[in-house]
Amino acid sequence: MALAAASLLPILSTLTNYEYYTSAGINSGLTADKPNFYLNDKEIFIYSGAVHYFRVPRQYWRDRLRKLRAAGLNTVETYIPWNLHEPKSGVYDFGDGGNDMSDFLHLEEFLQIAKEEDLFAIIRSGPFICAEFEFGGFPSWLLRKENIEFRTSNSTYMNYVTGWFRVLMPILARFQFTNGGPVIMFQVENEYAVSGKHDLSYMKMLRDIMIDNGIQELLVTADNPIRKTYGTLPDLFLMTGNFDEDPKAQLDMLKEIQPNRPTMTMEFWSGWFDFWGGIHNNKTVDVFKYNYEQILKYPASVNIYMFHGGTNFGFLNGAGNLNYDDENSDYHSIVSSYEYISPLDETGDYTDKYWATKDLLEKYNPIKTQLPEVPPSPLKTAYASVKLEQEMFLFDMLKSITPVYSANVIPMEKLDINDGNGQSFGYIVYQKTGLTIPANAVLQIEGRVCDNFMVLVNGILVSPWLERSKDLHKVGTSMVKNSEIILSDKNLTEATLEIVVENWGRVNVGAYKQLKGLWQGGVKLDGEYLYDWTIYPLEFKSAWTNGLSNWKNALSDSIGPALYKGTLTINESPQDTFVYMKNWTKGIVIVNGFVLGRYARMGPIQTLYLPAPLLVEGNNTIIVFEHFKPASTVNFTRNHIYESF
Ligand SMILES: *[C@@H]1O[C@H](CO)[C@@H](O)[C@H](O)[C@H]1NC(C)=O
Ligand SMILES: *[C@@H]1O[C@H](CO)[C@@H](O)[C@H](O)[C@H]1NC(C)=O
Ligand SMILES: *[C@@H]1O[C@H](CO)[C@@H](O)[C@H](O)[C@H]1NC(C)=O
Ligand SMILES: *[C@@H]1O[C@H](CO)[C@@H](O)[C@H](O)[C@H]1NC(C)=O
Ligand SMILES: *[C@@H]1O[C@H](CO)[C@@H](O)[C@H](O)[C@H]1NC(C)=O
Ligand SMILES: *[C@@H]1O[C@H](CO)[C@@H](O)[C@H](O)[C@H]1NC(C)=O
């Protein structure tokens, strides 16, 4: 008998969530052919929350999932990042790949923990995931392929998707509900209606590959309801909706598109993310609570995006480009914190939105099953500040990198390194030695730089600093087309010129030719093209960083780009902390060889979450790569600090 949720009496049960739905054995997975979902023939409302395993240290997965369950949710949702799991074409990493991010990639362990913590799971395996993540989850080596057309049935693109799904889907298939696992639903692609592609045969191909590789649970798509069925195939997928306001109108639209089928909000945005140079977004608990209640009351199923945002560790942040062009004409990098102002903050601590969620689910969830006790809050420490007493200039850093030689400047993806997969992340350095540079000669970089640059002459920085948000519109960034810089007021011979370009994170939606470095044109000195470049990939892989020698005592008036190093000594078991980079200008922080993330004085955030599992008892090496002007210490706090310049 299908009753609306609100009219059901609470079932006082000592059963777990999993027992409630499976005590009579498993006969069928989730169905969507009635006005509400049924799982194994029992009516279910899916109360889900997004937690991305690749944004949370593995040691914390159980803690975050238990907290999610303790709030009364019955399902966890995660995306799957193709770029991390297939870092080189045909080479897969599910936790033991020996890459810096490997420990975040034990997908099977994450799903096993979800089941142990009494949660169902929703998998959003893309291949495109957006997620404010580097290139929307696409591997950068795809950019090496000629004429590839992303997110379409283009055969070049589909060959790589098929290769990936043939590896991924059999793993996921083992964790399906009807195989005794937690996964009840798969989302195909992601907000396909706004891709501008409208190649629905592509959507069918994705479905077919999934089914051919063992996927048997319910398949859905997700788009803003206003897009109607533009990005989906109603016969093959249930459409779910993404939105954060006006739930009734949005859900009504879904009902109209799919009468007599369940309504579900796949992304109910609990908060939002921040761009460098932008304002700190802040969606209040009142707004969150009001809209969440409207969804529960409707009644509809709902996934809170994010329930726990986590962190864009390393170089893994995405970026926005509202012009949706491949030229990089309106590029905005997203910050490393993916806190998202979600119910659990970046440290896994409780916020008002957590308690609001718990209260509302107690009120509206008709199925009462056992819940764990709410776990304690995490311990945090503000460690004593660390003096960075050693330094290494670019010149010494480059000594331990094997360069690539090229007649013209080329983007990092096209470097013939990493077994033919190019450079994915970090910085790229274009060098010319033995140059004659007349006084007041102008360096011209044709097209746009991707994404910002530092120019050095004989090791001295001569380009402007990217310090304040207003500098985002000045020479040194992709906002300026055909940059020009005067190199020196002296006549120089046998000079060395270096152009250091930062890949500040690839646009995560709407642009697909996301090459990084210099590639839109040539580089000229007083109108003459410069040829025969020595190019250094500056990837900051931990093995390289940990192997650096040649450290010198830091000068008090040092200017970057340079590395600065110090030691954080911890005499007890490490705790979570935040690295406070105020008074530094722009760069990255590296802890024990692992790239923690980016900082920039412009804000809106001045801190980087440093979780305890990245620290050890004893000495920890803190290295900062600063583009411009360093401070002498790195400080630590117990909370994020938001400030803009
Ligand atoms: C799609 O893939 C084929 C390879 O089969 C390629 O030749 C073609 O140019 C690709 N790109 C487009 C835009 O169709
Ligand atoms: C968000 O805004 C509310 C009210 O405007 C304020 O109390 C709260 O401190 C803000 N939170 C953050 C993280 O800025
Ligand atoms: C650079 O060399 C030119 C040509 O020899 C000379 O005219 C000019 O004065 C020199 N400029 C400086 C700043 O030395
Ligand atoms: C940080 O910078 C501000 C302004 O640039 C300066 O007044 C202050 O002394 C600096 N603090 C430290 C600890 O260096
Ligand atoms: C830890 O670092 C301190 C200060 O840099 C140094 O004096 C000490 O010898 C180091 N200890 C170990 C075990 O390496
Ligand atoms: C960082 O710590 C040092 C030493 O404790 C202190 O002097 C300085 O003011 C702190 N800097 C900031 C920006 O808080």
For the structure shown, list the relevant keywords.
645 residues; alpha+beta; Jelly Rolls; 3 domains; eight-stranded parallel barrel; six-stranded antiparallel beta sheet; disordered N terminus; binds 2-acetamido-2-deoxy-beta-D-glucopyranose; beta-galactosidase activity; EC 3.2.1.23; BetaGal1-like_ABD1
Largest sheet: 8 strands, parallel, barrel
Domains, number: 3
CATH domain topology of the largest domain: TIM Barrel
Please give the radius of gyration in angstroms: 25 Å
**Distinct bound molecules:** 2-acetamido-2-deoxy-beta-D-glucopyranose
Overall mean pLDDT stands at: 96
CATH class of the largest domain: Alpha Beta
Shape: globular
Strand order of the largest sheet: 5-6-7-8-9-10-11-12
Strand element count:
35
Total count of helical runs of at least 4 residues: 11
Give the amount of beta strand, in percent: 25-35%
Task: Label the structural class.
Answer: alpha+beta
Low-confidence spans:
1-11
Describe the structure.
Helices cover 17% and strands 26% of the residues. It is of the alpha+beta class and 645 residues long. The chain folds into 3 domains: 3-364, Glycosidases (TIM Barrel, Alpha-Beta Barrel), CATH 3.20.20; 386-391 and 548-637, Galactose-binding domain-like (Jelly Rolls, Sandwich); 401-538, Jelly Rolls, CATH 2.60.120.260. The strands form 8 sheets. An 8-stranded parallel beta barrel has the order 5-6-7-8-9-10-11-12, surrounded by 4 helices. The chain has a 6-stranded antiparallel β-sheet with strand order 28-17-29-34-31-32. The protein has a 6-stranded antiparallel β-sheet with strand order 18-27-19-24-21-22, with no helix packed on it. Strand 5 (47-51), helix 2 (61-70) and strand 6 (75-79) form a beta-alpha-beta unit. The radius of gyration is 25 Å and the shape is globular. Residues 561-620 form the Beta-galactosidase galactose-binding domain. The active site is at residues 191, 267. It comes from Phaedon cochleariae (Mustard beetle). Its EC number is 3.2.1.23.
